[in-house]
């Protein structure tokens, strides 16, 4: 009945509300009367409560706008397509078209080693490899010695001493300048072996840039039976259509087995060694270009189908004379893309024009981006990467400062200072 009474003033109504309300905080600040300590306590308690409230709101909104992903893992036992396998013999071929220039480079390497370490190499065949019969024109393509290309002696190896942390340290390297010669730096290495390998590789790229871009590799290299003695999959012999032959300028003769991944013959139905790929390979070290590929054995890379094998970044080496068993496990990652991260399905939405004819990979995009930077800033293309139509590989007879430009660009790429890492997203799968 008291609740239905009418109060004479607003103050009486407010006092009744303060005596009977169950709301804390704001009302207590007003209804505490003259008790300052109680009002101060309720003021602090209210501010702390508001701070906790807004903090919780901030956590919930930040978690919502971060688009969290729930990771689920599952294991399936079902038939799968066997992956692509690339095998190289680590024996780069000495093309007859540039044989004279490569022999001259071998002599320059011997002279550099003698100058640096004072020991003359009496076994020239260790650099030159096996001898060739004939006049160098047996393939019908002639020799490029008359093209006007000359090996440059402006990139000689030198030994330098520098102070680091109060100690005098020795390094070996060669000097690189821009096209005008006004900006120079030294490409140095603490190891003399690393320096001579990189120096040889630099000259080798300039020599190989003289070769025609389209060349029939089968006229120069051995047939597959010279390297692949035996090939079996799941107990059945491989067919000639099951592998693709190509040449790598550093890793030599290469074969990719099951490159497309569409033949039911390569379906893996059972786990275990007897049901996988069995290869008997011949690994020869003919010592043709030992400073370009100082290893002996085989280079193996297991990768996805329709994917360019980047042997210089991935894979592993197997020494000859042993039996090696390799077990594989496939981890499949599906990225959501969109607001959850940057990825691409097939590379069609990537601004970089891919120079490889296979499916999109992050490494293919980075190589294509770097090659386009080389063409724009250096005026020529890097030898180990494909070229777009109308472009030419770098050659210090035509572009004297391309080495200076390349090594600076490559250093920026390794330090992630190029926009290629922003332009090339990871594949969504």
Automatic annotation (TrEMBL):
Region (Disordered) location: 120-143
Membrane topology: Multi-pass membrane protein
Subcellular localization, as worded in the UniProt entry: Cell membrane
GO cellular component, one term: sodium channel complex
GO terms assigned for molecular function: ligand-gated sodium channel activity
PANTHER family, per database record: AMILORIDE-SENSITIVE SODIUM CHANNEL SUBUNIT DELTA, AMILORIDE-SENSITIVE SODIUM CHANNEL-RELATED
Protein name: SCNNA protein
Gene name linked to the record: Scnn1a_1
